[in-house]
């Protein structure tokens, strides 16, 4: 959604196209937060960064 802006009660507008979100850990809470940021916050998926320490092939979880 191009040009989406969110208006808060304290008279500040945030341009979500320039907003970045960083999550630590790729568990359910981080993935759920990313979904809500995309769906409800209209944050582009390219601006959401999820960091995980474990390798892709590590199955010890």
Automatic annotation (TrEMBL):
Pfam families: MCRA. It is an enzyme of class 4 (lyase). Keywords: Lyase. One of its GO terms (molecular function) is oleate hydratase activity. InterPro entries: Oleate_hydratase. Its EC number is 4.2.1.53. PANTHER family: 67 KDA MYOSIN-CROSS-REACTIVE ANTIGEN FAMILY PROTEIN (AFU_ORTHOLOGUE AFUA_5G09970). This is Oleate hydratase. It comes from Clostridium frigoriphilum. The lineage of its organism: Bacteria, Bacillati, Bacillota, Clostridia, Eubacteriales.
